[in-house]
Amino acid sequence: MSEKDKTENIEDILDGDDTQTQEIEDRQTAGDTRQSEDEQEEISTEDQLREELTKEKEKFLRLFAEFENYKKRTSKERMELFRTAGQEVMVALLPVLDDFDRAMKELSKSDHTELFKGVELIRNKFKETLKSKGLEEIKINAGDAFDAEVHDAITQIPAPSKKMKGKIIDVVEKGFSLGDKIIRHPKVVVGN
């Protein structure tokens, strides 16, 4: 081989190397592209999974909060049911308590001390039983200021003095509360 042929052969080899080098670079670029596409797919899949996880967490927290509210509401409703059930019984028993008070008033006028003591014993036991269930008498006296929120004015009469204007003159019927709720307003006479 002549020198010229050798040089051409070397150039061909070099050109072939360039072609091979180019092919190798193309393969690497294609591989990198595929790899970057796979990575993007993985990243986008990871992002999607994160978003779904976040949504599911939010749903769980909302559901948990709704359940807690439900428990509180049903507990409150149950307690209110017990109170109102007791309230109906208490309201039904108030006239019996009033009758005991009237009986005590009349028996105190008579000479039957043993009868008075027996009725008083029964009345006190009845009152204590109602008190243990939450019944409280609303304490009012003649001369207290009239409060329309608490008292029920059945009539107005001329006040015996200027100090008694707008004040309670007489208590006709006692009032009672069950817990913090008034179940019977006291009936009063107010001075005007």
From TrEMBL:
Keyword line: Chaperone, Cytoplasm, Stress response
The keyword Methyltransferase appears for this protein: no
GO terms for MF: adenyl-nucleotide exchange factor activity; protein homodimerization activity; protein-folding chaperone binding; unfolded protein binding
GO cellular component, one term: cytoplasm
Residue stretches of biased makeup (Acidic residues): 10-20
Protein family according to the UniProt entry: Belongs to the GrpE family.
PANTHER family noted in UniProt: GRPE PROTEIN, GRPE PROTEIN HOMOLOG, MITOCHONDRIAL
Name the record gives this protein: Protein GrpE
Organism of origin: Pelagihabitans pacificus
Gene this protein is translated from: grpE
